[in-house]
Amino acid sequence: MTTGLTSSPPGGGPMHRQRGVVLAITLILVMVLSLLGTAGLVTSVLELRMAANAQYQARAFAAAEFAIEQAIHTPGLATSISYASPLVVPASGAAPAVPGSPPDSYSYQVYFDTATDPVSGGEAVEGLRAYHFVVEATGMSSRGATDSHVQGFYVLGPETPPATITPPACAPDCSDPSIYAPVRTFWLQRDAE
C-alpha cells in the first residue's frame, strides 16, 4: 500500500544544489570582472603617466633649443671665453625660465673654439675672420625631464679679435649685414638613443 508520501534525500532536492553552483559561478564572474576592471584602470593610469613624461621630455628639448638661441645671440661673445673658463648662464642662482612656459627652465655655457679665415665662394673674405664657438645647453621641465644639446656656430668679425664680438659683424664696406649673421656648424643631442 502506498501512502502517497515520498521521502526526499537529505540536503534538499536537485534545485537546492543548483542554487549553490549558480552562486559560486556568479562570485567567480564578479571576481574576474573586478580584476579586468582594476587591470584596465592601472593600465590607463600608467599610459597617462607615460604620455605626460613624453610631453615633459619634449618641453625639455624645446627649452634646450631656446637656450641655444639665447647663447648664439649673446652680445658678450669673446675669444677670451674658453673651455676651461666658459660663459655660464646662469652664473649663480636658479636657472632662467623659458618665457611663456613657467615650469620649463634652461642653462648653457658658451666657449670659444677656433678662429679661421671665412670662405665665401671659394675665396677668403678680406678683413674678416670666422670665430667658432660651442654652446652646451640643457633644458629642464617637470618630473625631472632634462635634455642636453651641443651646438657649434661661428660669427664673422674683424681679423684682429675685438674685446667682444656682437653678431652680426660686418666688413667695413659691406652692404648687407644679414649675411654675416651667426652660422650653425654642427648639432648633437647628448644621451640620445
List keywords for this structure.
193 residues; alpha+beta; 6-stranded antiparallel sheet; two-stranded antiparallel ribbon; 31% helix
Helix vs. strand class: alpha+beta
Q: How many domain units?
A: 1
- Envelope shape: rod-shaped
Largest pleated sheet: 6 strands, antiparallel
Average pLDDT confidence is: 83
State the order of secondary-structure elements, H for helix, E for strand. HEEEEEEEE
Strand content: 25-35%
- Give the proportion of residues in helices: 25-40%
Q: How would you describe this protein?
A:
With 193 residues, the protein is an alpha+beta fold. It has one domain (54-189). Helix content is 31%, strand content 30%. It has one helix at residues 14-72; strands spanning 87-89, 97-98, 101-116, 119-120, 123-124, 128-140, 146-158, 183-189. Strand 4 (119-120) and strand 5 (123-124) form a beta hairpin. 23% of the residues are buried.
Gist?
By secondary structure, this protein is α+β, with helices and mostly antiparallel strands. It has one helix at residues 14-72; strands at residues 87-89, 97-98, 101-116, 119-120, 123-124, 128-140, 146-158, 183-189.
